[in-house]
Amino acid sequence: MNKQFEAVYALVRQIPAGKVATYGQIARWLGWDHGARTVGWALRSAPAGVPWHRVVNGRGAISLFDDGEQRLRLESEGICFNALGRIDLKVYGFDGFVKV
DNA sequence: GGGCTGACTGACG
DNA sequence: ACGTCAGCCAGCC
């Protein structure tokens, strides 16, 4: 487990229920201006306890192929999807990350 | 050490 | 708003 990975998990854990964050947002928060992909990769190995389902791509859509499950989890947390199956980041976007 | 892959993003048409 | 192209980062052959 790398330190940077833990930083990602720490940030994701800060996302409260009913809110979501984007890969790029987390990436930039960590200083990886163009390493959003790495964030997704870190989440790929995310340990239990990390609400990875609250992380979506910059367009507010689920990039993961198992969108069925992820979407279900988000909806059970009070997050509504629009007709196009995307999340309104202006409403559910979370930006209250705190440095650890 | 070299090259490929991926849970992304921004720009362009 | 959607599809395509190119760029960046870290891990795994």
Explain the overall architecture.
With 100 residues, the chain is mainly alpha-helical. The chain has a single domain (3-92), classed as Winged helix-like DNA-binding domain superfamily/Winged helix DNA-binding domain (Arc Repressor Mutant, subunit A), CATH 1.10.10. It has five helices and two strands. It has helices spanning 3-14, 23-30, 36-44, 67-76, 89-92; strands spanning 21-22, 55-56. The chain has a two-stranded parallel ribbon. Helix 2 (23-30) packs across helix 3. The longest helix is centred in the N-terminal third of the chain and has 12 residues, at 3-14. The two termini are 17 Å apart. The relative contact order is 0.22. The mean pLDDT is 91.
What's this entry about, in short?
With 100 residues, this protein is mainly alpha-helical. Helices cover 43% and strands 4% of the residues. A two-stranded parallel ribbon has the order 1-2.
Strand content: under 5%
* CATH topology assignment: Arc Repressor Mutant, subunit A
Q: How much helix is in the residues?
A: 40-55%
Number of strands: 2
Radius of gyration: 13 Å
Biggest sheet strand line-up = 1-2
Largest sheet: 2 strands, parallel
Q: What do we call the CATH homologous superfamily?
A: Winged helix-like DNA-binding domain superfamily/Winged helix DNA-binding domain
User: H/E series, N to C?
Assistant: HEHHEHH
Instruction: Name the poorly predicted regions.
Output: none
Distance between the termini: 17 Å
Mean pLDDT figure: 91
Oligomeric state of this protein? single chain
Number of structural domains:
1
Broad structural category: mainly alpha
